[in-house]
Every structure is written in structure tokens, then in C-alpha cells.
Write a structure and sequence with these properties.
By secondary structure, the chain is mainly α. The radius of gyration is 20 Å and the shape is globular. Helix 5 packs antiparallel against helix 8. It has 9 helices and no strands. The longest helix is centred in the C-terminal third of the chain and has 38 residues. The termini are far apart. The protein has one domain.
């Protein structure tokens, strides 16, 4: 209970800070840019923390942490939606023709929108009901989170025009998390390859 309460407080902090800043005129000379930046960083940070849950559980043996994966993923999607809405509503004032043109012509918008589209089905199918309906396909579908994370890093990289150190930190952490999955992926692939051979021996 305490763990989930702490998660909610931590994940809502960026939104509460932005709300306070908007109400007190504390978002600086370019509030739209500030909102876009904060929501984007919050989405990427929480998404990477979500990916870290399983490796932390495997290394530490702390199984309760797995309970945080779903709310973390939904909070990441929450900030992705806020990030996109800021761009569509505050930046382009619902000019959907301009949005479409940006998606087609500006590469960092293209990859960012692609990351959003990949995350939509993951958010929709995050419930226990969908896990039961999809069975083994659920795990395959939710592997798209890795692709979405890489696209989000590329989106951040191409948007950054000066200091690349921060995006480098995000990319390094994501790289470590992806590499930590390689042994598990390799083991599962070996098990699938050996299973038909074992069945042939039994027959």
C-alpha cells in the first residue's frame, strides 16, 4: 500500500508542478515549451523505470515490485498523451492539417507519433482481462514497448539542438536495460528450439 502511494505521489509530481506553475505564472517566458519539455521527460523517465521493474525483480528477488509495472506503464502513457495534447492544442491550436504535415515532414515528430501509436494498444490491453484474452500473444504485443522506447529516445535526440548529455543518459540507461534482457531472450529461444527435438525423441 505504501509502495503504491509513493508511486502515485512521485508520478503525479510533474503534473502537479506544471499545474502550480500555470496557476502562478511560474512556467517562464515560454510556458508551452516548458509544458512540452516536462511532459516529454516525465513520459520517457517513467517509461524507462517501467522497463527496469523486471530486471530489478530478477536481480534482487523482490517480487512485490512487479505490482508497480502496470501503474508505471499507465502513468508513462498519461504523460505521453499530455505531451501530444500540448503540441496539438496549445502549440498548433487544433490545426490537424498542420499536425499531419508535421508528421510527414518533420522526422522527430514522425518518430514521436510512431512511439505514441505503439503505446496505445499497450495501454488498452494492460488490464487482467486482456491478459487472459490474449494469452501468450499478450507478451508478444507488449514487447512493442522496447520499440516505442527506442523511438522515444530518437524523438528526444532529434528534438535536442544543443546539449546532448541528457539524452545520452536516457539512451545509456535504456541500452543497459535492453542488454539485460538478452540472456532471457536467448534462453527462451533455445528452449523453443529444443522442444521439438525432445518431442521427436519421445515419439
Amino acid at each position: 500500500m505504501f509502495l503504491k502511494a509513493a508511486l502515485w505521489v512521485a508520478c503525479l509530481a510533474p503534473a502537479l508542478w506544471l499545474t502550480h506553475g500555470a496557476l502562478t505564472d511560474g512556467l517562464g517566458a515560454n510556458p508551452i515549451e516548458k509544458i512540452t519539455l516536462v511532459t516529454g521527460k516525465a513520459a520517457l523517465t517513467i517509461l524507462i523505470v517501467t522497463l527496469a521493474v523486471t530486471p530489478i525483480r530478477r536481480v534482487s528477488g523482490w517480487n512485490r515490485i512487479i505490482q508497480l509495472r502496470r501503474p508505471l506503464g499507465l502513468f508513462a502513457f498519461f504523460y505521453v498523451v499530455l505531451h501530444l495534447l500540448t503540441y496539438v492544442t496549445l502549440d498548433l491550436y487544433f490545426d490537424f492539417a498542420a499536425v499531419g504535415e508535421d508528421i510527414l515532414k518533420r522526422p522527430y515528430i514522425t518518430v514521436g507519433f510512431a512511439a505514441f501509436l505503439l503505446l496505445v494498444p499497450l495501454a488498452i490491453t494492460s488490464t487482467k482481462g486482456w491478459i487472459r484474452r490474449l494469452g501468450k500473444r499478450w507478451q508478444a504485443l507488449h514487447s512493442l514497448v522496447y520499440v516505442a522506447s527506442v523511438l522515444a529516445i530518437i524523438h528526444f535526440l532529434w528534438k535536442t539542438k544543443a546539449d546532448f548529455r541528457e539524452v545520452g543518459v536516457y539512451a545509456s540507461v535504456l541500452g543497459v536495460l535492453l542488454l539485460s534482457r538478452v540472456p532471457g531472450w536467448y534462453t527462451r529461444r533455445r528452449m523453443r528450439a529444443l522442444r521439438p527435438n525432445a518431442q521427436r525423441v519421445q515419439t
